[in-house]
Amino acid sequence: MTAVGIDAIEIRTGKLQLDLPNTFAPRKGEDPEKYTKGLGLETSSFPDVYEDIVTMGANAAKRLLDRKGIEPDEIGRIDVATESAFDHSKPVSTYIAGCLEQVYDGDFRHANKGERKFACVSGTQAIDDAYNWIRAGRNRGRAALVIATDTALYERGDPGEATQGAGAVAMLVTEDPSIVELSTDQGYGSMDETDFLKPNQQFPSVDGKRSMQVYLARMREALEDYESVAGAVEPDTVAYAPFHTPFPGMVRKAGLFAYRHITRNTPVEDELADAIGRQPREADYESREAYEEAISEYMDALKGTDRYQGWYADTIEPTLELSRVVGNWYTGSVHLARASALRHAVERGLDEEFVGERLLVGSYGSGAQAEIHSETVQPGWREEIEALDVDEQLASRYDLSFEEYTQVHEVHDYDKSVDVEAFTAPDGEFVFTGWGRMNERT
Ligand code: HMG
């Protein structure tokens, strides 16, 4: 069977940044370490006044098509995953295609365009749709362009405010991909939940603490479902485990949950038993509460072991590097985590020996659904990852003062929509120039 997967990636960050420990924390009267150590965040990305989900997505897609030398005729499908859409009818992919058609000779009339919604997991769902379309043989040799783009803003004063971010990840899904092949095995955990939702409102209503429990519960179910088709996951067979990263502190918890889960009934559990005992079995406890208490104690002990800390440092920590400096990008977040992991592999000097290695990808969206699947690294991975210009983009972000941050927040609040001067100058890119005239390029 021909491999199908991700052939190329481009990342586009919002051009502004908010320094959480030095600018945000003092004005909130909070200890900076709550952000850096607790949540695991340094800075958040924000869109300048002429950026939005369309411009960030279109700019990422343009660089991707240019770099790969791809013409519109070679793209058969454009799917945008977002939870920041401003149009209840026209999908954001039509706005993005409109931008791209200004700069290419061809057009995307032949391309099937859509918008995928299921909170943050929809970026992965759009990739799954593209995979299925290619596997079904309906792509006529064409590639799918998948763009995950969001401005993840919360109401001012909401506890989620510290986790904000904005950016887009564009991905090309093809046969014989250069970066990763997607496996056919997937596992899901899905349930109607109301801890994070945006019913006809721009900013989410969030029960932050509950949202963390729901994330972990759905991830556990997805892992169980995945193992039922793919077999048990041996921790040492996973090179990296990129998870949806609303903030790195969440993935610190998810990593521990996942490790506990995948090591039960394995030689790793036997190896750890002398030091921390065996994992609690539900059948040995009189109530669910007593069992959960025992699990919690086991995980506290597990967290302190060299075995777990080594696995976390090698497999999870490297996936958090970009998230730490950009915040939550909602639909793009897990795809940034994958990119962080692969950048880490480049830094380690890996090349051909990394081909065939496995990524265990955990996607999650509030509302709520988790998906676990695995991916296999392909021979062109290093060249593709080295082509990313994300370091340059991050280094050139404008550093907002707190007052400027409050203005930027209002610019991107549809209810307020204040007029504020741009902080940076557009440079050969798509810019937002006002409703009805929004597909312009400077
Ligand atoms: P909070 O209540 O302000 O923070 O907001 P906290 O008091 O819980 O502190 C956060 C962490 O910092 C804690 O760590 C503290 O101990 C630690 P933990 O105990 O959990 O390991 N801390 C400190 N550490 C060192 N020095 C200090 C210090 N002070 C505190 N001085 C909350 C946290 C997550 C609730 C908030 O940010 C929030 O509401 N975020 C938005 C919701 C969210 O991100 N949920 C995550 C799961 S749901 C999800 O991922 C889906 C999502 O992406 C949306 C989608 O799918 O579309 C959100």
Automatic annotation (TrEMBL):
Pfam families: HMG_CoA_synt_C (PF08540), HMG_CoA_synt_N (PF01154). Keywords: Acyltransferase, Isoprene biosynthesis, Transferase. The keyword Acyltransferase applies. GO terms for molecular function: hydroxymethylglutaryl-CoA synthase activity. CDD domains: init_cond_enzymes. One of its GO terms (biological process) is farnesyl diphosphate biosynthetic process, mevalonate pathway. InterPro entries: HMG-CoA_Synthase-like, HMG_CoA_synt_C_dom, HMG_CoA_synth_N, Thiolase-like. Residues 195-410 form the Hydroxymethylglutaryl-coenzyme A synthase C-terminal domain. Residues 4-175 form the Hydroxymethylglutaryl-coenzyme A synthase N-terminal domain. This is Hydroxymethylglutaryl-CoA synthase. It comes from Halopenitus persicus. The lineage of its organism: Archaea, Methanobacteriati, Methanobacteriota, Stenosarchaea group, Halobacteria.
